[in-house]
Amino acid sequence: MKSFTYYMVLLLCTSFNLLQAQEELQLSEKDSIVKSSWMFGVGYNIVDDSGDVFDELFSFGKQWNALSYPSRVSIGRYFKSGIGIEAIASYNKYKVGKFIDGVTNLEETQYYGLDARLTYDLNKLIGETAWFDPYLGVGAGYTDANNQSRATYNAVVGFRTWFSDRIGMDFSSSGKWAANNDDATNHLQHAAGIVYQFGIEKGLSKKGEKKLALIEEMAEKRQKEQDSIAAAQIEKEQAALAARLAKEREQARLASIEKAKVDEEEQRKLDIKKEIDDLGLAYFDLNSSYLNSKSKKVLDGLAVVLQKHPELELKISSHTDSRGTSKYNNWLSQRRVDRTKAYLIKKGVDINRLDTEAYGETNLLNECDDTVYCGEEKHQVNRRSEFVITKY
Fold this sequence. Notes:
By secondary structure, the chain is α+β, with helices and mostly antiparallel strands. It contains 7 helices and 15 strands. An 8-stranded antiparallel barrel has the order 1-3-4-7-8-9-10-11. A 4-stranded mixed sheet has the order 12-15-13-14. A hairpin with a 4-residue loop joins strand 9 and strand 10. Helix 1 packs across helix 4 and helix 4 packs across helix 5. The chain is flat. The protein starts with a helix and ends with a strand. The model has no long low-confidence stretch (mean pLDDT 89).
């Protein structure tokens, strides 16, 4: 007995320590990163069309062309695989005095670019971070520069740095090679701007995945400790468990029987309602409360249903179209409901099973009120007696 008590206390202490450690090791926002998103960007583009490629790459004053206002917009979709698809539009001006196509530019000209590119997030290879995303890409586009239009093949290298899950900055440099114009030179295009992510789907970073694995491992260990405690108690609890299971099975059996009764009753109600709905409504001729042959046929069928189900009670409501005064229509609908009820009583239906109400023109089934012109066919829809089951 003493050893059993010691074993139980030891297990409880171990389990408590594991639980405390697991509570201290929790996933946080820092453990998650954006896995896929849409991204919209606005920024500046800088064009180097000097023709000397890397000889004077950072010759800003002599070779770089830029505007003082944002001149680049982009939209892209980025997937969990690291692949991104982007569309980019850019605008610039070649300034007088800049080194363009190997010569000094003497006239200001416009620059237009429309490009599409496919990029790959290098974090997939070098390890994920929540704030720094380098990427490489290739693409194609159309550029009109220095009064020469050309299709281009593009290659890009860049990175994004993030201030939050949604806002960041994008920096990139693209090489653009002319594809269909031998006179057009290749050039470089640099970009810097603000990007905004939306349609975000988040997931765990590698660090978060490791932390989750550790949490799950600790939870598994704690579960094993709890299983050991449960195993030590199982012999004592078997009788109580068997009794409880037997009681639950009986309760489930009784609940199943009760549910079957409820379902059967509900189906019975639905079947009766369908019988009545399938008969349709009793319609009246204009300014008439007399039942025509079609309406009598509906009421004959209704009487059969009521005789088949003697516990059934109905509310009969009668209506008119909008033509005529409200006072006249109230009187007419009362005459219609009275005649409808009288016909059913004549067919053997107990008066106590029928309730009536006359609505006049207040419950139209379509737009045909006093302000709308309608043909006779539409007005006919409103001259009716309806039947609603009030007791099954």
